[in-house]
Amino acid sequence: MAITEQFRADRATPERKTGALTAEQRWLVQASWEKVVPMAPYVAELFYDRLFELDPFLEGLFPANLAELGTQWMTALGLAVAQLEEPSSVAPCLEEISKRHVQYGVRPANYVTMGDALLWTLEQSLAEDFTPRVKEAWGATYQVLSVLLIESDAAAARGRDPGSARRTIESVALGAHRVG
Known about the structure:
This protein is mainly α. Helices cover about 70% and strands about 0% of the residues. It has one domain (about 5-10, about 25-175): Globins (Globin-like), CATH 1.10.490. Helix 1 runs antiparallel to helix 7, helix 3 (about 40-55) packs across helix 7 and helix 7 packs antiparallel against helix 8.
């Protein structure tokens, strides 16, 4: 199932938070990330090119010069990947991203397109190393992270205390749905 279909199905059902990432999925994501890191600037540029190709409206939400934003995005994604065993530990980073997303006008539905762009980017960047198992693992990981970001974005939009987002992140991370 494509990330778009899975995301929409999962967001539509209360059961979306029923399974956690497996140890194998965490390992696959972390091992493949190590191959992405040396190409980080290229991967970030490829991601934003694909994102804006999929949804040209999004291009108007982001700054014209994406170099710094791309570096921040790759750093944040790397931090999240490194902390997959304890997703709540990336809460401060997600809160900062959410503040920017709220300022830019990013909406929850945009995360579907972002997920599609991310998986496509990883497929292009990792080539034959982007096996079906790696794709499934990244899809499941993105599902966890996007739910956490959507919850954090909502808290930022309401001007809530960052600790409330951290508590939400912990509860969502404990029951993230396995994509497959």
